[in-house]
Amino acid sequence: MTSAASRGNPVKVVVAGGGVAALEALLALHAIAEDRVTVEVIAPEQDFTYRPLAVAEPFRVAAVRRFPLRMFTEATGAELRHGSMTAVDPARHVVETDAGEEIAYDVLLLALGARPRPAVANALTFGGPEDDAAISRLLEDALAGSLRRLVFALPVEARWPLPLYELALLTGNYLSDRGTREISITFVTPEDTPLGLFGPEASRAIGELLELRGIDLRLRTVPIRFENGALGVAPEGSLAADRVVALPRLEGPRLPNLPHDRHGFVSTDDFCRLTGEEDIYAAGDMTQFPLKQGGIATQQADSAASAIAARAGAPIEPTRFRPILRGLLLTGMASRYLRAEAGTRPSLDVEPLWWPPAKIVGRYLTPFLAAAAGLGESPAGPVREGAIPVEIELDPRETCWSRV
Ligand SMILES: Cc1cc2nc3c(=O)[nH]c(=O)nc-3n(C[C@H](O)[C@H](O)[C@H](O)COP(=O)(O)OP(=O)(O)OC[C@H]3O[C@@H](n4cnc5c(N)ncnc54)[C@H](O)[C@@H]3O)c2cc1C
User: What was the pLDDT predicted at 161?
Assistant: First the structure.
C-alpha cells in the first residue's frame, strides 16, 4: 500500500461492486475505520436488489425489494460512481472503467459477484428476479392443465440450494391451494439428506415438509439433461418430466491481469486478501470459497474491512474469515399451513423458508436494511414457532455435495 496511512492521510479504498459483499464492506469500513479511509464505490446499477425474495415473487407472498445505492453511500460519506470496472493495473494502483476512466486506489476491494450459467441442459434455470416471469408462466401452464410432471433439479455445481427448496414447496402450496392436485412434483438432488448443509434438525424438518406437501424426494441423484420428456440423471436412469426447474452453476468474473481458477474465481487468504496481491482484497461469490451465500459474502467483507481498517491505523485486530452458516430456517408457517389442510387449524399463507430481513445475514447490512425497510431483525410472534436457528461452522472442503 502507498504510505497514505503512515503520512496521516486517509487511505483511499475503491470498492468495486454494489451487491451484498460491497455494501457490507462499505458499512463495516465506515463503522471501524471511520475517517481513516475514504471510499469510492463503483457499480453499474442504481439500486441494490435484495435477491432472496425472488423465490417468493411469482407466488405473490413477497416482493423483491430494491434500495438505492445512494442511500448506502450517503449514510457512510462514500462516493458513488456508476459504471463497470473493466481491468485492474495492480502495479499502477488503478482500475479502469467502461467509460474509459482510470481511478486510483490505495486499497481495492473486489466484490463483483458471480454469473449464473445453465447447469442442467434445457431446464428452466432459476437465477434470481430475472427468472420470476418464467416461473409465473410455468404456474399458469400448470393451472391450465398443460403439464402433469414437474421436477425441481439441484445440479451438482449449485452452491446454495435453499432457493430451489423454497421454489418447490411454494409451488406445491400454490398449486394445491388452487385445487390442482393431479400434478406430481419431484425434487432431485445429489445431497445425502435434504438441505443437509443446514444440519440434521433442519434437514429432518425440510424432509417432513416435502413429504407433507406430497413432493417426491430423490436423494444422491445428479440431474444432467432434460430432453424428450425425460430428465436424464446420474448415476443412471431418467425421470419422466414435462418441465424441469434447476438452479444454475456460477462463474467468477475473470478480470484481466488478475489470476483466477478455471471457473473464474479468485483465491484469497485468511483475511480475504487476493493471493499474491498486497493491496487487493476480494469478498463474496467471486472468491473460491465453495458456498456462494450472502452470509458468507458478508463475513468475508467484514474480514477484509477489518484488515483494511487496521492497515489504515484503526486500533483493532483484523479478524480472520471463519465461515459460519447462520440464519433462521422458517418451517413454522409452512407446517401450520399444512396442518391446516388436514382440518386441524385455520389456513395460513406459506412464506419463504428463511427469515426475510435476515435472509442475508450481515453484521452491518442486516440492521441497515431492516431499518431501511421498517422491519425487525428477527421474526416476531407466531412466525417464530417452528423456526430452527442455524449456526454451523463450515469446513470449506465439505460444503459441496459432489460425491455422487
Ligand atoms: C434467488 C436467490 C436466492 C438467494 N437466497 C439467499 C438467501 O436466502 N440467503 C443468502 O445468504 N444468500 C442468498 N442468495 C445468495 C446471495 O444473493 C449471494 O451469495 C450474494 O448476493 C453474493 O454477494 P456478492 O456481493 O458476492 O455478489 P452480488 O450480490 O451478486 O453483487 C455483485 C455486484 O457486483 C457488481 N458488478 C459485477 N461486475 C462488475 C464490474 N465489472 N464492475 C463493477 N461492479 C460489478 C454487480 O452489478 C453487483 O452489484 C440467493 C441468491 C439468489 C440468486
Answer: 92
Dump the DSSP string for 228-292.
TTEEEEESS-EEE-SEEEEPPEEE----TTS---TTSPBPB-TT-BBTT-SSEEE-STTBS-S--
- With 0-12 / 13-18 / 19 or more C-beta atoms within 10 angstroms meaning exposed / middle / buried, residue 372 is middle
pLDDT of residue 336: 41
Best residue for ligand 1 mutational test, from 51, 152, 254 (most atoms within 8 Å of Cβ)? 51
Q: What is the pLDDT of residue 326?
A: 76
How far, in Å, is the centroid of ligand 1 from the Cα of 245? 21
Closest CA to 252 of 118, 371, 111, 386: 111
Q: Among 80, 112, 255, 324, which residue has the most ligand 1 atoms within 8 Å of its CB, making it the best to mutate?
A: 112
CA distances from 40 to 164, 206, 282, 301 (A): 35, 42, 15, 15
**Which portions of the chain are predicted below pLDDT 50?**
2, 335-349, 402-404
* β-bridge pairing 107-110 and 11-16: parallel
Name the phi and psi angles at 398, rounded to 5. Answer: -115, 20
pLDDT for 191 equals 96
The 10s digit of each residue's pLDDT in 109-128 is 999 999 999 999 999 999 99
Ligand 1 pocket at CB < 6 A: 16-22, 42-45, 51-52, 54-55, 84-85, 111-113, 127-128, 160, 162-163, 253, 284-286, 292-295, 297, 354, 359-360
Measured in angstroms, how far is the CA atom of residue 207 from the centroid of ligand 1?
A: 28
**Helix%, strand%, coil% for the chain, nearest 5:** 30, 25, 45
Spatial contact of 27 and 365, defined as CB atoms under 8 Å apart: yes
Under a CB-based contact definition with an 8 Å cutoff, are residues 298 and 20 in contact? yes
* Residue 325 pLDDT: 84
Q: How far apart are the first and last CA of the chain?
A: 45
d(CA 358, CA 365): 9
Q: Which three cell numbers stand for residue 166?
A: 423454497
Q: Would you say 296 and 316 are in contact if contact means Cβ atoms under 8 Å apart?
A: no
The pLDDT value recorded for residue 138 is: 97
Q: What is the pLDDT of residue 250?
A: 97
